[in-house]
Amino acid sequence: MYRQFRNFLVLPRARKRLLAEAVAALLSAWWLVRRKPFRSYARMLGQPHPGEYDDAAHHDMPPQPLGQIRWALQRINRLAGGRFTCLMLGIAAKRMLDRRGLANTLVLGVRPDKGDGADPFGAHAWLRAGRYVVIGLEERAGHIPVASYHTAPGE
Asked: Which of 20, 89, 125, 133 would bridge with 137, disulfide CB 3.0–4.6 Å?
C-alpha cells in the first residue's frame, strides 16, 4: 500500500486528476449498478440502438485521451482488486468521455454458449469510441451485441 501511495505522489498533476476522476466515475457507476434497476438509468447512457451501433462519423477520433482514460480506470480497478464489473467500467468510461465531448457507444452483449447458473447468458459490456474499444476489448470475443447506447457531441 505504501508503494502505491508513493507511486501516486510522483505522478504528474494531470495523471493525479485523471485518477481522481476515474475514482469518482467508478464509485458513481458502482452505486448505479448495485443500487438501481437498469431501466432507471438506461436513459442517461445515451440513445438506445439494437445491436452494435456503428458511428462512422467519429471513426477518426484521436486515440490519446482514450488510452489515458483506459489506463486510469484499469489502474483503479486493479488497486480495488478487480471488484468493478465490465458494466461499471463501461459506464465510468462513458461518463469520462462524455465530459470531454467525445462520441462513444456502450455496447451490451451476450454469449449464449458460455453461461452458468449465476450468469446464464455470459453477459458483457464494452465501450467503443470511434473504431477503438476503450473498455472490455479482451473479453468481447464471442459476445453477440444485443443493445448499444450512443452519445455524440451536439446530440
From this structure: 133
